[in-house]
Amino acid sequence: MDGAGYHKRLTNEMPTTRSLQSWLEDHLSKVGKWVYRRDVNKNVLLSLAKLNKPKAIYAANTIATRYNHQLYYTPPYHPTLQPIELIWGLLKNRIAGDPPKSGADAVEK
């Protein structure tokens, strides 16, 4: 599987600066088992969350391991490792050599 970003959807959400403080508190209590004062600043909670960042769990890996498969990621758009890139290159060269006159002509070619 290529390493494109859309293939790497996380199943365990990580806190960001847009996260609500209540969500941050819940996240820290689940992940890090942290005990802290309730009057703590949101920035402090974010820094604690970054310190206790769990390992990323990707949805594709979860599905693959459920069916006893293992995924290997290749670089995106790499012509040697992604055969579809070679096909796209051939198609682009063919269209550039003989450009279609209309949409129907493009489908015909």
Shape estimate: elongated
Q: What count of helical segments does DSSP give?
A: 5
Q: Total strand count, please?
A: 0
Taken together, the total number of domains comes to: 2
Q: What distance separates the N and C termini? A: 30 Å
How large is the share of residues in beta strands? under 5%
The low-confidence parts are none
Helical percent range?
40-55%
* Structural class by helix and strand composition: mainly alpha
The largest β sheet comes out as: none
Roughly how many Å is the radius of gyration? 23 Å
Mean pLDDT: 81
Helix-strand string: HHHHH
Protein name: Tc1-like transposase DDE domain-containing protein
GO molecular function, one term: nucleic acid binding
Organism: Phytophthora nicotianae CJ01A1
InterPro entries: RNaseH_sf
Topology (elements, then pairings):
Layout: H1 21-31, H2 42-51, H3 59-66, H4 83-97, H5 103-108
InterPro entries: RNaseH_sf
GO molecular function, one term: nucleic acid binding
Protein name: Tc1-like transposase DDE domain-containing protein
Overview of the structural elements:
- The longest helix has 15 residues, at 83-97.
- The chain has two domains: 9-71; 77-109.
- 46% of the residues lie in helices and 0% in strands.
- It has 109 residues and is an all-alpha fold.
What's the quick description here?
This protein is an all-alpha fold and 109 residues long. The chain has five helices and no strands.
Attribute tags:
mainly alpha, Tc1-like transposase DDE domain-containing protein, 109 residues, 2 domains, 5 helices, single chain, 46% helix, nucleic acid binding, RNaseH_sf
